[in-house]
Amino acid sequence: MSSLIKKYDKAGPRYTSFPPVPFWKGPPSEDQWFSHIDLYYRDDLGVDLYIHVPYCETLCYYCACNRVITKNKEKGTLYVELLKKEWEIYRRRLQNVRIGAIHLGGGTPNFLSASELGDLLAQFKDKIDFKRFIGSIEVDPRTLTRDHLQVLVEFGFKRLSMGVQDFDQQVQKSVNRIQDYQLIASTTKLAKQLGFESVNFDLIYGLPKQSKQSISETIEKVICLNPDLIAFYSFAYVPGSAKGQNILKQEEMAQGEAKRELYEIGKKQLEQGGYIEIGMDHFALKGSYLEVAHTKKSLKRSFMGYSDKKSNILISLGATSISNTPGSYIQNEKEVANFRQRVENGQLAITVGHTQSEQDMDIDVTIQEIMCNGEANISKMRALHFWNQIEVELAEMEQDGILKLESDMLYVTSLGNTFVRNIAMVFDPNLRDRSGDQPKFSRTI
Ligand SMILES: C[S@@+](CC[C@H](N)C(=O)[O-])C[C@H]1O[C@@H](n2cnc3c(N)ncnc32)[C@H](O)[C@@H]1O
Ligand code: SF4
How far apart are alpha carbons 100 and 312 in whole angstroms? Predict the structure, then answer.
């Protein structure tokens, strides 16, 4: 294993889109974007909505999310008005759409007060198809109140994801994210009492000051609280783009094999505690909705992570958020000020995007199958102009024991789960063009 980690630990995309954002070639116009939605809209699927709230009260030094740190709550109030305006643009153009799911993410959606959150969600109420609605939210437990949870329950939200990260006090101190076990325990209990059916914990391995023992103690506490889902993220150390990470001491972080060992320790304990590894960095309790979807090989993946259901259309509101239809992606302006200016002018705040070629779509499907199901039919990949190289690399990976090839099928082995990003990278033509600067991705291990 250790030689494989040395060999495959390199920078690479996470493939939440194909091509990855840095390789996008240009957005469709606003009119083209709306016509894509019209073309692909299906009433039985509705649309999924993602709403990005960028604000957080304090900076967690490890954070690589799109967020703005401020204690000024008025910013949240003004931002809700902007989100309403942006939604009005969609509403006018898409009069008959139904909403099947809303995901609130950030930043920290509960930076907004409970009444602001209620006011925001009320904008969508007449379009929500409550018979099949999925409402989910990412929260910061330190600023979450009972009122927030109650508003969410009123609007049919049943899935809650909490940033837990690590329970060790030394680790928490070093990353400026202090929250005690009791807070997480009481929030989990309250959410379940109020009617949330699914509680996810986000954890990170590879943070400063983590040791085999501290990880093991954190996981033990996590298992005691019995969340049905756990995201056990590899720490993405990208100090070039996430400037707050420059405060962290690199010599205090496990890397390469030592980092992977932290994951393996956690994984073993989680498996003993009744959790199943369902995909890259994610665990689900046996019988939970994601474990069932994993068993049925019907897992879906999007910018928000894994899910059991997904519409073919994702409309995302807010600064930096990414929307997609089959064949196209758009991203909103990243800076709130630019986002504001465009929306105040009555326009969508599209800044970058991409229209997939047929080849992009085929690669996209292959990579998603590898990431969600651990297997893919790769027959269409033979048409890629660098297929000869792909064949050689896949044969080497097969020799390394990380995948198996049987005629047109590729199967990721259990050893290969660690290297799933590397396997996906083989099919990505963008990574083969070595001319010019390559974008900076996090490391695959
Ligand atoms: C938007 S935040 C979650 C909600 C809320 N802001 C909070 O922190 O509790 C999404 C998650 O991304 C993960 N995350 C952030 N920066 C990361 C990094 N550099 N590497 C790996 N995971 C990271 C954290 O686990 C975090 O909980
Ligand atoms: S981890 Fe969450 S709370 Fe911390 S800075 Fe990032 S988005 Fe904000």
Answer: 11
Q: In angstroms, what CA-CA distances link 235 with 128, 213, 293, 315? A: 36, 18, 26, 28
User: Whose CA is closest to atom 5 on ligand 1?
Assistant: 140
Q: Are 225 and 182 in contact (CB under 8 A)?
A: no
Rounded to whole angstroms, what are the CA distances from 364 to 198, 281, 374, 429? 29, 20, 14, 12
pTM, two decimal places: 0.94
Q: Measuring CA to CA, which residue among 105, 79, 9 is closest to residue 321?
A: 105
Ligand 1 geometric centre to CA of 175 (Å): 12
Domains and CATH numbers, the chain: 1-19+357-445 (1.10.10.920), 22-317 (3.80.30.20)
Residue with tokens 């590397």: 422
Q: Which residues pair with 199 in a beta bridge?
A: 160
Per the structure block, which two tokens stand in for 147? 């009122």
Please, which pLDDT band fits residue 418 given cuts at 50, 70 and 90?
A: confident
Residue by residue, DSSP assigns 119-175 as HHHHTTGGGB-TTS-EEEEEE-GGG--HHHHHHHHHTTEEEEEEEEE---HHHHHHT
Classified as helix, coil or strand, 438 is: coil
**Amino acid, single-letter form, for residue 204:** I
Nearest-CA residue for atom 8 of ligand 1: 163
Distance in Å, CA 55 to ligand 2 centroid: 9
**Residue 382 pLDDT greater than 90, yes or no:** yes
Q: State mean pLDDT over 387-397.
A: 95
End-to-end CA distance of the chain: 12
- Band (pLDDT 50/70/90 cuts) for residue 434 is low
**Helical H runs in 23-102?**
30-40, 74-93
Name the residue of 53, 58, 60 whose CB sits within 8 Å of the most ligand 2 atoms, as the mutation to test its pocket: 60
Q: What is the pLDDT of residue 303?
A: 82
Query: Which band of pLDDT confidence, cut at 50, 70 and 90, is reported for residue 350?
Result: very high
